[in-house]
Each structure stands twice: as structure tokens, then as C-alpha cells.
Design a protein that fits this description.
Elements lengths: L2 H23 L5 E5 L5 E10 L7 E8 L1 H4 L6 E4 L5 E11 L4 E9 L17 E5 L5 E10 L3 E4 L11 E4 L2 E13 L5 E8 L1 H11 L8 E2 L8 E3 L11 E7 L4 H11 L2 H7 L3 E6 L4 H6 L7 E6 L2 E7 L3 H12 L3
Helix pairs in contact: 4-7
Amino acid sequence: MNQATKRRAKGNLIILIALLLTKVCTGQEWAVDVKTPSGQAGSGSIVMVDGVVNANGWKQGLIITANHVVDKNTTGITIGYENKLEAREAKVIAREPRNDLAILVALVPATVDAVPIAERAIKEGDKVAFVGRNKRRYEGKASVLCYANEAWTDAVSMPGDSGGAALLDEKLVGVISGGMRWAPGNVKKTWPCRTANLDAIKEIIEKAEPQVDWQHKTQTEDKELKYKQYKAGDAKEKNVTQIILFTADWCQPCKQLKKEISKYEKQLLEAGVSRLVLVDVDVNSKFTKANNVTAYPTTMLIRNGNILVKQTGGTANALTQKIKQALQGK
């Protein structure tokens, strides 16, 4: 190979590397590094930002990461952005150890927006993209082990990837927890890659959001009320205003009320409802009995663990009016 050919080959290689780096970094300003006072480090994603910018060019935001990245610290955590910018006083405001999730409130550069949230959860066969430490990007195919709150893929994660984003169609669907088995090599790697799934992401954001004094809240998608299946402890959660609907697959009036309630989504959101929960009375008989529910459908409005409204039967319109009155203190 002559010198001219070598120079052309070297030039083409440099162009290829530049294109690859552009692909990795473009559109990922929301991807951040997380460092704790105790020495733990990982990745994270900006999921919500305040539209008000302070005099120094920063705004308030929420960062989602893996709980095990920040489990030894609550305050004094450093968030690293592009161009070596850092916010050094981030603090944890919500944790979900069972899903390995945590949310921090931190200052965010004025030019950076939140990552959009996915419309659906990861399911078997999906091609999932991951953004780890220093915006390292890799992909994996989802296995049969996909549930509402977690999913497994055939990807290999590396140190520092924990807390990074799992993406479906370039939208946040999960948060990297790590892997199960050690892969060979000098650098420790784990395979397969475990990630939280969409339901867990939405739940912890809903839990964290009311704890922040937003001046002008902005998100990359409009907030909406969607039904989630009941799990133990939902009714006792603090800082959550929720409607719990006791229903069953064989109950036609239940299905009708569930459908009608969705038509009042805007009114319920404006009133302050943040979550709709479905309780299958056949699956959750203990919880059903504990709330003295013997006829279906029965609907309860719960705020900070306290029952404000309880209605058996009735229309969605009547229920909505009761809820609005209860939340307005009338």
C-alpha cells in the first residue's frame, strides 16, 4: 500500500469514527453521569425540567438513576453534564429499591431538555437501545423475561452503565440495573442486562413530582391518567392522590365504569388526581375485604393514604363531581 492510499484510508477511518461519535452523542443531552460522596458512580437521565432559568443559566430538574448507584448517599451527589458542567448538590427525593430506581432533584443547564417517555413497555423480542456511562450506546434484544416493572435483554453492560437509559424508539422505557453473569475479558462486564420497565418508571416519577416546587413545569409529553394494576402498598403511599377501582373480569358494570372514568381524565387531572389503580377483587381478596368492599364496582379516592370518597356503583360523572368537591375541601 503506497503513502497516498494509506492517507486516504486513515482519513476515511477518522471520518467513520466521527460519524459514529455523532450518532452516539446527538440527541442525548439528557444523559448524565452520577457521582456520590461515597465514591459510587453511574449514569442517569433527565426526566423532567422546570421552564424557569435562574441568573446563572440553570433550571431545576429531576434525574432518574438506579437506586444502587446512590443507596449510600441522599445529598451532596454530583451530576455531570456535557462540556464538563456539574451540579454538585443533587439530592435523592424518591427511592424504589424493589425496582432499583431513584430520583434526584438537581440543577440542569438551561439548554437541556428532558428525555421523552415511551408509550409502551418492553416486551419479548423488542430491540432495546441503552445509553450508559459517558453516553456509551449499545443494543440488546428483549428476552421472554419481560414484566410490568422489569425486563431482561441479551446486552452486555459495563461498570458505570448502571442508572443509564433503556430506550424504545429513542424514548425512555427503563433504567439499567446491571447484569446477572460475568462475561469474559479484562474489563468486568455483566450479561444479560436487566432494566426496570415502563410501569416502574412512571410510578416513581409520579411519586417524586409532588415533592418539587415547580415554577413552570415542562415535560416532553403531556401528562395523562392511565390505569395500573394494584400492588401491595399502593393505597398507603404518601404524596399520591389516586382513584382505586375494585373490579373483576366477570363484572360488566365494572368494565363500563372503568371506560367512563377515562372520559373525565382532564377534569380529574385538574382536580389533582395523579393515578388510577385497578384492584382485581379475585386476585386481591385480602385488600378487598380489608376495605369492606362487598359489591362491585366500588371506587375510592385516596390521598396520602386517607380515604376521602367511597362509592359503590353510580356513574363516572357523579363520581368525578364527588372527587372534585372532596379535593376542593367542600
